[in-house]
């Protein structure tokens, strides 16, 4: 439509018109490569545009058209994806403030420069309001033109414009939130009103300031550039490669040993009898890339001779020293397990040391009092170190059963997994699974009664089968059993009254015998006093009548272990524990040893009573 006279266009309309005119111009213009003359580079485009029809079929053409310089697409940051080999940018996807990624393949565009131009042309259409599907079709047309698949680009673009949807509202470039600025797309907003700053005139340099400025510039260098610089410095070292033997030119080591540019190391993998090992050499230690390759190939030959990894690492350090480089890190202990395996082993050991969760006897008795333990089963015997050991436990009956047969659910505590025991009619077996009717079972038991009886009533020859892994498959475990839960009744403790009565009866017998013996000894003492003999305190102790009591007790039978021990000891020694000589008062013991209290040793010297230096009349001797 013709524009009315005096009508003023908005900046968005100007940009849209410039973008459409740019695509129209691409119908009449195309690209070609510079003819290789005088050593010229065919990949560099000339400033002269050649019509598309003049390009020979199958030649690689390039896109010389680009988005207008005043278009907002130039404010969008273009990123490079090295892994997927593409360039991409993020554009506003709508009024919700979100951004969508749009990328162009470098391989399909036959060059990074062409891919960036295609991205800017397509991005301009997106910002002008063109639907994304139409822009993706335009991207395909431009990429095919770069690859030489479609030489009639103007006609293809004309057909694309006719079939494309009309332009919608233009998208406004908005800066993402500040907290997400590093992750999301960032835009550089032009500030045309701001006058450019005048360059500062360099003044006299100060040694201290110059050093600080160099440190700041060095800190600003990206990490990748610093690493590349360090690698370049290492590769410039001159080393004598003849000091290291190399593999023959036709040896497989030349194919196995590879240089990893990302890490700056040279390595390979070698298969041993106990598994595959990884081995590497570093450029920094060897002095140069070629030296690192030689050292790696020499180590590969040592692996073929049957040397262990630890020995090859020592050999590698010798080669490093021979080349004048520094030795690598001290070789690890060959018997030491890998870090991941060691950590897994430590976790397993810690888990094994924790107390196992068991259903307490009190809980089972509480369930029994509530009537919930009737018909319960206990599955036990599965080794905790084996797979599917979670089937062990107490299974309570499920109300209603499952498909006409009884079903059980394991008692779980906390985060314990659920386990169900039910009968599967289609397979004629009892299964333990995560849910009722689940075909993925942990264990099964084949029976012939059709599930009429519980698995605890299965014949003894029936065995539970468990899945022990892909290599072993299903195997029978004879140690696993299923039994009905039966709580043993606690036996009432015998009352202490009969034992007390027995002890009192024994004490009465001892006291009566002691009284009779003491009375007879007293009469003898009186006679001795009258005749001028020894006093009662100096008289020898009368023979105790306790051995007769001990004989009575041992002959009676039915004694408790404690009473039987005391009676036996008394019969052997001849006196009761704590019994003092007749007519003497009980004296404090100087030794609390058991043998002294039992009468085998004297409490004064802790020697045998017959060997006591104080004699039979010493303190505490009876």
UniProtKB/TrEMBL annotation:
Coiled coil segments of this chain: none
Region described as Disordered: spans on this chain: 1-70, 168-232, 326-363, 445-469, 488-545
Bias kind Low complexity: ranges: 513-522, 533-545
Stretches with biased composition (Basic residues): 344-359
Bias-annotated ranges (Basic and acidic residues): 1-11, 175-200, 211-232, 330-343, 488-502
Protein name (record): Uncharacterized protein
Biased composition annotated in UniProt, kind: Polar residues: 48-62
